[in-house]
Design goal:
It is a single chain. The protein is α+β, with helices and mostly antiparallel strands and about 400 residues long. It folds into 3 domains: about 40 residues, no CATH class; about 190 residues; about 130 residues, Sandwich (Immunoglobulin-like). The chain has 3 helices and 20 strands. The strands form 4 sheets. It has a 6-stranded mixed beta sheet. Strands 17-14-19-1-20 form a 5-stranded antiparallel beta sheet. The radius of gyration is 38 Å and the shape is rod-shaped.
Length: about 400
């Protein structure tokens, strides 16, 4: 019997294989980065007494003398202030040094204190009732004048009278507890600014990169004018306005600090690696918790953390909470620490030449991703499938031939 030709079967299988191969498109992976320097700044905490007073040559009983006492906040953070008044009567010695006369009653110097904006704490201090904001002066003075009592006898004649004004201040945010007056209701509560307006990071596309909206300075808009023991919260919106789905990641990088002395640099290192702690959450999930520098043991921000897959038009919110240790002292005032954050968008498209150059001096660039080509994986799978089809068809033809033979 004449054998049947197998050529048509082989041609059919080859056609199927060609169709499978033609339907395969190789995809190239890419990544685009965008970075920003964020700053945390310590407050300048300063207050000073301001007086309007001209010392008269002499003061007679019942004579009123103008002496106006205010306090001005010359720092950049709100504060609570209290003032202590000490009255003394005495003489000048041969060297012009004042010597207090213990036999004379300093209460003969009469002062009417303001009780509208100031409260007598009955502990030797007068407390300004409101938080004194940066740059402000007390709305009303503690005192405006004094009078020598009408019953001051000849023993007071020719004597020197001194009114000594001492001022103490603490940061308004959480500082009043130092004075242990939280339950005396003599000063108003102060909430401060714990949450600021959200900043944002937007991925525009592979060619345009990231748009990082910085509120005045950087993403950490609310992490300025910090004081020991305070806390701040910053919301950062992550958006994808490109026309494709991407994965976005975040990591921190080492960065040179601003120019400063070696002593200041050592303090900044303590600030960002020890005293300033952040907690980053996304939908309640903790992405990172540790020093603001990102160098926590275990969950280290130097390794990229995925913020998820973002479809075109999608957005997510990061909540960054910063807490500052109350153990810090005044040597940390006015310090500025820098932290660099890097956002990366990863995607893939049809194979095209991928640039390995990053823009000169820029903060956004395309990076080729060294991973297996998913298109090749599909190709090999199709090849195996076609081979299996060919072998199965050949085996079936062989069995049929044997039966017919």
């Amino acid at each position: 019997m004449k054998k049947k030709k197998k050529l048509p079967v082989i041609l059919v299988l080859l056609s199927v294989f060609c169709l499978l191969a033609a339907s395969i498109t190789a995809y190239a992976s890419w990544a685009v980065t965008g970075s920003t320097n964020n700053f945390i700044g310590m407050a300048s905490f300063k207050n000073e007494i301001t007086e309007q007073y001209s010392q008269p040559g002499s003061v007679d009983p019942s004579q009123e003398v103008t002496k106006i006492v205010n306090v001005k906040n010359t720092g950049n953070v709100a504060s609570f202030v209290r003032v202590q008044i000490e009255k003394q009567i005495g003489d000048l010695d041969g060297n012009g040094v004042f010597v207090k006369d213990e036999s004379l009653d300093p209460e003969k110097i009469l002062i009417t204190f303001n009780n509208t904006m100031w409260a007598d704490g009955h502990d030797g201090y007068f407390y300004y009732r409101e938080a004194l904001e940066a740059g402000e002066t007390t709305k009303e003075p503690l005192m405006e004048s004094f009078v020598l009592s009408a019953d001051a006898g000849n023993a007071y004649k020719g004597k020197q009278g001194h009114i000594i004004v001492r001022m103490e201040s603490v940061q308004a945010e959480g500082g009043a507890d130092i004075w242990n007056i939280s339950d005396r209701k003599i000063i108003s509560s102060y909430k401060g600014t714990s949450v600021s307006e959200a900043t944002s990071v937007t991925f525009l596309g592979k060619d345009k990169g990231f748009d990082i909206e910085k509120s005045q300075t950087d993403l950490f808009a609310s992490f300025k004018n910090l004081t020991p023991g305070c806390s701040r919260t910053q919301e950062i919106i992550i958006r994808n306005t490109s026309g494709e789905e991407v994965e976005i990641t975040l990591h921190a990088e080492p960065v040179d600090q601003e120019k400063m002395s070696a002593e200041q640099l050592a303090l900044v290192e303590q600030l960002i690696n020890k005293y300033a702690v952040i907690r980053i959450t996304q939908d309640g999930k903790v992405l990172y918790e540790g020093p603001v520098s990102g160098t926590a043991e275990g969950n280290n921000m130097r390794r990229a953390a995925s913020l998820g897959s973002f479809r075109s038009g999608a957005s997510e919110k990061l909540v960054v909470k910063l807490e500052l240790s109350p153990e810090m002292d005044n040597q940390y005032m006015d310090l500025l620490g820098k932290i660099r954050w890097v956002f990366t968008a990863k995607g893939e498209d049809a194979a095209t030449p991928v640039s390995t150059d990053t823009p000169s001096g820029g903060t956004t660039g395309i990076i080729p991703v060294k991973t297996g080509d998913p298109g090749m994986a599909v190709f090999y799978a199709a090849l195996l499938s076609a081979s299996a089809l060919f072998l199965a068809a050949a085996a079936a033809a062989k069995m049929k031939e044997r039966k017919n033979g």
